Amino acid sequence: MSELLNPDHIDFAEICVGGQFRSGAGGTAPSIDPTDGTLVADYGVAGLDDVEEAVAMGRTALADPAWRDLKPHERARVLYRIGEAIEAHAEVISALQTRDTGKTLAETLALALSAAGTFRYVAATLESLDEDLTAPRGPWVTMSVHEPIGVVAAITPWNSPIASDAQKVAPALAGGNAVILKPAEWTPLISLFLARLAYLAGLPRGLLSVLPGPGRVIGDALVRHPQVRKVAFTGGTVTGRRIAQIAGTKLMPVSLELGGKSPTIVFPDADLDEAIAGVLYGVFSSTGQSCIAGTRLFVHESIREAFVSRLVERAKALRMGRGDAPGTQMAPMIAHAHRDKVAAMVDAAVAAGARLLCGGKVPLGEFAAGAWYPPTIIDNVANTDTICREEIFGPVLAVLSWSDEDDLVAKANDNEYGLACGIWTRDYKAAWRVARRIEAGTVWINTYKQFSSSTPFGGVKNSGLGREKGRHWIQSYMNQKAIYWGMSKDPIGWG
Ligand code: NAP
């Protein structure tokens, strides 16, 4: 490992403005380990002047023939190198991210490898993208070509750092753009690390800035900036809608990966061991801090009692512990404030009549100093209750049941969100019928929370707008241009 990439030697109080690592105009702020509330590092906070400078540096870099004139396969080479560098430093990234987020080492390693895979997939796609020669309907040669949009702002949440950063930075650079990344306040360290790594891997100066700072200040300034021509956002629906309104005024493209309240459906003929493991993984992995968490369980009435009692037993046995301890399944949540919000939502549901089947209490003893919350399962709730309507973003599962398929589909769809759905059954026809009727961007059948870079991902309804991943990923960061090339030997015949 290069000493320049040794987290113990990195000064995280430096922000990245177009490849210059220096202090930000907003001073510093603490990044806290949610395991025990201790300081991980003071990180640099950008100010509005830094936003101006990052945009200006991005524009200068875009005009430089050293980037502007690179052929796609040459840009791809830079992206491959970044992907390889991420993979080579995956364990360093994982350890740093576990300290910054409390997540398990297994999860942070998977996020680092996912980010490396994203850069490589995008590079490979870029190498093999074709432009269209369209069928002429007159005496011209007609083409449709793609060109960079310009300066892109990427605004990311705290729950999957580096993976969500890569999902925006890689396709934006592939499209020939400059990117300004605004990470979440709770998790800026890994984004600053990514910038160092990208420049060491050969990214030309000016093309990537990382500006930590409050979303309502730095994020808002980026969205409103007249020279920022696209915003790629992942985060909450309230923030996403605010960004979309500003984007609408600017007539700027925006992609929005937002919240979810996903149903998981268990049929009476499901393989119960597989379904129980899948439901637990779908809702409690990442300590429930996942947009796609399967938080509303619809289990068939005929198996409800047996299924739920085994599910609760297995949930109680999940291993809660430090993210860096071997075998941990339930690490702390991202921050004490977020844990307290989740606990308050559960308390309110219980006060309104919900029954706690397990969890639901902030743990004390060895867990008292950290932001822990146990796997929590509740029943005696209706699909229309607040706890079943609003995103909790914590390890909380609500049990509902069904007996009629039409009613099931109506209830599963009766929610403002439409991000994901899980179906557990051996009946392939039923799986197909329900999968096609569910209003969601992704449906998993007899599996859950699996991803492939080649399969487009995104939400419907209040879960978002646009898709990430897939063959058209890069073009979503480009403008399409039509070229008509006159071939007639006769003049247009006018004037
Ligand atoms: P958030 O509060 O919306 O914040 C997301 C990002 O937006 C952060 O970087 C935040 O900065 C910034 N931000 C806040 N206010 C802003 C503003 N007015 N203008 C511009 N940027 C602003 O969401 P979060 O709590 O970090 O993340 C959790 C949410 O993300 C959940 O709803 C989850 O479902 C969603 N999510 C969706 C997906 C998906 O793919 N669909 C994936 C992961 C997460 P600060 O940190 O400084 O506030």
Task: Describe the protein.
The chain has 495 residues and is of the alpha/beta class. The protein has two domains: 7-258 and 463-481, Aldehyde Dehydrogenase, Chain A, domain 1; 263-445, 3-Layer(aba) Sandwich (Aldehyde Dehydrogenase, Chain A, domain 2), CATH 3.40.309. 37% of the residues lie in helices and 22% in strands. It has 15 helices and 22 strands. The protein has helices spanning 48-63, 65-68, 72-88, 90-101, 105-127, 163-174, 189-200, 215-224, 237-250, 272-284, 304-316, 336-351, 386-389, 405-413, 428-437; strands spanning 14-17, 20-23, 28-33, 38-44, 132-134, 140-148, 151-155, 178-182, 208-210, 228-234, 254-257, 262-266, 294-300, 355-358, 376-379, 396-402, 417-418, 420-424, 442-445, 460-461, 464-465, 478-486. Strands 14-15-16-13-12-18-19 form a seven-stranded mixed sheet, sandwiched between helices. Helix 10 links the parallel strand 12 (262-266) and strand 13 (294-300). Helix 3 packs antiparallel against helix 5 (105-127), helix 3 crosses helix 7 (189-200) and helix 10 packs across helix 11 (304-316). The mean pLDDT is 97. Bound molecules: NADP nicotinamide-adenine-dinucleotide phosphate (NAP). NADP nicotinamide-adenine-dinucleotide phosphate binds next to helix 8 and helix 9.
Brief descriptors of the model:
binds NADP nicotinamide-adenine-dinucleotide phosphate, alpha/beta, 15 helices, Aldehyde Dehydrogenase, Chain A, domain 1, Aldehyde Dehydrogenase, Chain A, domain 2, seven-stranded mixed beta sheet, 495 residues, 22 strands
